[in-house]
Amino acid sequence: MTNGYRPEMIQHAFIDFIGSHLQPFWSFTVPKLRLVARYTLSDDLIALRFETNHAFRRQLVSWQGGQHLNLSVLIEGVYHQRSYSLLGLAHQPLWWHDVTTGNSINSGARKNQPPYLAITIAIKPQGLVSDYLTKHMAFGSVINSSVPSGSFTLAQASITVQTKSAAEKPASLLFIAGGSGITPMLGLITQALDNGHQVTLLYYSRTEMLPFKNQWQQLSTAYPAFTYHLVNTEKSDTYLAGKRHLSVDSLLALNLPLADTQIFACGSQALLTGLYKAAAEVTLPHNKNLRDNIIVENFGHTLPDFNFDDKQALDRKKHAAQHTVYLRARQRQFDSSTTLLNAAEDAGIRLAHGCRQGICQLCRCNKVSGVVKNIHTGKMSSDGYESIQTCINIAMTDVVLDI
Questions:
Q1: Helix-helix angle 185-194:210-222, to 10 degrees
Q2: More confident residue, 357 or 72
Q3: Taking the model in full, what pTM does it have?
């Protein structure tokens, strides 16, 4: 009697091991990228163009605007994992032309290639991995990658608008970005316009980003439903409502139906904090709260504090209760009122970590006892033994970690 089981005569992992020594870009199972071009978008933002291997294309169905890649980069014998947002969409070429330099980004790494055979990310050189990718990694170098993932997508939008005929129409969408937080917005905005949304972009930057500016001008010409406001925080004539940074006056100056507007925001902790503070000052009908309309993507790793119900809430982190975290294997302990990883580093204790955003799992460890809270989901853990991530959990009681 047969059970349908057919053993593999040769394991794919073995073939990958041999093949990687002959051709590093080749793999049955591991998505890989090969660097083919770099483009300067501004003084502090560099676009990198990669060719994808067969395993990447085989595992990829498509990707949504706003998603990202997890890259594994080997630097001086040590692998580092980081996450970077994708520019554009799989089915739609992203391109622009920089009139100042003559640089252009086209839909493929080579002529006549479908757009999904090459992908583009944008990086702000500000750390070990980002500096290596933007300044030192040689063209033709190969790195391991995930396929696109992430939930900062239009699928998260929950607002629907009822018309007088009882039919639904797409909600108005407001995209707010600061600095390198603009990168996931390109695909999101293009996708939203294709879906018939009324789209507004509010972008804060310290520098001129001509390629992006040209992109917005092209979209505005192609889609009458798209409007944009580019605020250079160093030039007062670009300020919205006379404000250098995001404020309640900035939001009101957009003249949007805020109660029926879904807001996507990506940028620094200061930008997101300013947005939530401004949203708390907006009065909406029917006891609605504008903060409920906001979806954020945060590249930082500090503990968010978006509670502005009273003046003392702004200082809540200063007076947050501290709990003792004990590292059983190291026989070390430290006090923590922020994420376990940040608190350990503040105490001079180095813990394993990667992306600092709860994505790469490199910081995962076993908790022996104590209660922790996930700052992404708000979920409280049990008091017993379980696996947690130190970069996105804060101690709610004294905690013992098996580290």
A1: 10
A2: 72
A3: 0.71
